[in-house]
Each structure stands twice: as structure tokens, then as C-alpha cells.
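User: Here's a chain of 130 residues. Predict its fold as C-alpha cells.
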Amino acid sequence: LAMFGAPIFFEDHREKAVRAGLKMLERLKEFNQEQCERDKTQLHIGIGIASGKMTVGYTGTQNRAIYTCIGDTVNLADRIEEYTKEALRPLIIDNYTREGLPDDIKLDDLGRIIFKGKNQAVNVFAVRGE
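Assistant: Prediction complete.
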């Protein structure tokens, strides 16, 4: 789980999140090439990004506190990550994230999906790592 825009807000948090996801996939590709050369197991990941309001703060004890987030946006990101396996696309985002991206980030519209725990379908997009 990664958060962008908390605890300090910045306008381009959606772009930063997507570019971080693309960088993760780029590094994973390099790692897997090395694994292949060594005849080792390759890894695959799915990244789901949702943007919106959430509750953030510290939880735990005084000796072991962590900064975390909860809320509908967090749950949606988790559902989108799960959907990456079905869609066979490693990086998928919601529409609100898409609205905050510059034109140089290329997307494929995957349509409207009804996720567990949601009453309405969510428009999702696969990010192309070109």
C-alpha cells in the first residue's frame, strides 16, 4: 500500500502515483530479465490505483504505531488490484485518477466494472507502460 498526497497534499498526487506504478513495472521487468538469465522464477504484480478522500493517521500502540489509511477509496484500490489478474493488465486506475493525468500517460478504457462492496459500476482504465 502506498499513499500519495498524505500527510502533505500536493496537486499532482494522481500523476505521481501512476508514474510510481509505471516505475515499479519497469524495474520488475529488469528484475525478471535477470531472473530469466539465471533460470530463476519471475515475479508478477498487479497495481490498483484509486484516488479520493480517505481517513489517514497513526494507528497502533505508542511503541508500535504505523501511519495508514482507511476508507472507500482504499477499498476500491484493493478491488482494482484484484481485477488486474482478471483483466491481465498490471496497472489499472479509476476514473478520478485518470482525470488528474497529463496526456502523455496512455490509457486503455476497460469499461465500467461492478466491484464487491460498490453499488455503482466504476469506470477503469489500464495504463500502458510504453
